[in-house]
């Protein structure tokens, strides 16, 4: 895996600007894994996908993540900073290749007399999620999608006869098995001392950065092309420092 180039960032924004977040994640990863198929990328678990995005974001924009949050107790506005290196495992094989090798996506657990087999949630599942589904519908859809089988004393249990607490237990087990699928960051308010967890969505965060960076880059291309008559392709091969020096010479 390597940093995304200027032309790749523009291509990503153009291809994914009207897509859902699940599809945007795949569009980004297509550049990071040029030898992998879209199907392979869509079948990564959410935790595996987000590990790749965290690493790619670090290579492209640096390891520092910054944001704002309001303390839920005293409502103090906080500036937050985190390091991507503390959020994923840099030894993951996926981060050191341009293709997708077979990865673990299934697991099982015992609950009383039941043996439950399931698979991890994937981007393909999120893409297939019905539009405008409420929380109950979403939960049931994901349960139906990720649950492989349930056996009791070796006998297959019908879906209609599943124990009532299975959905909550299954969701808990899925989070434990694929922890980055629900990545939380700990915030600490210096004003009142309150500590709480914030759910962090690397797809939305990374996409917002790509959007802002690409729009700024397009303005630079327009300025330099208008002033010097250079082609877009030639401008994009320049480093950010060189583009900035030329823009300053123009006096803008």
Question: Would you summarize the structure shown here?
Answer:
With 252 residues, the protein is an alpha+beta fold.
Give a verbal description of the structure:
Helices cover 46% and strands 17% of the residues. It is α+β, with helices and mostly antiparallel strands. It has a domain at 106-182. Strands 3-4-5-6 form a four-stranded antiparallel beta sheet. A two-stranded antiparallel ribbon has the order 1-2. The longest helix has 27 residues, at 202-228.
Strand tally is 8
Which stretches are low in confidence, meaning pLDDT under 50 for 5 or more residues running? none
Q: How far from one another are the termini?
A: 36 Å
Proportion of strand residues? 15-25%
The helix tally amounts to 10
Mean pLDDT, all residues: 90
Major beta sheet, specifics? 4 strands, antiparallel
**Structural class designation:** alpha+beta
Succession of helices and strands: HHHHEEEEHHEEHEEHHH
Radius of gyration: 22 Å
Helix coverage percent: 40-55%
- Tertiary shape: globular
The strand line-up of the biggest sheet is 3-4-5-6
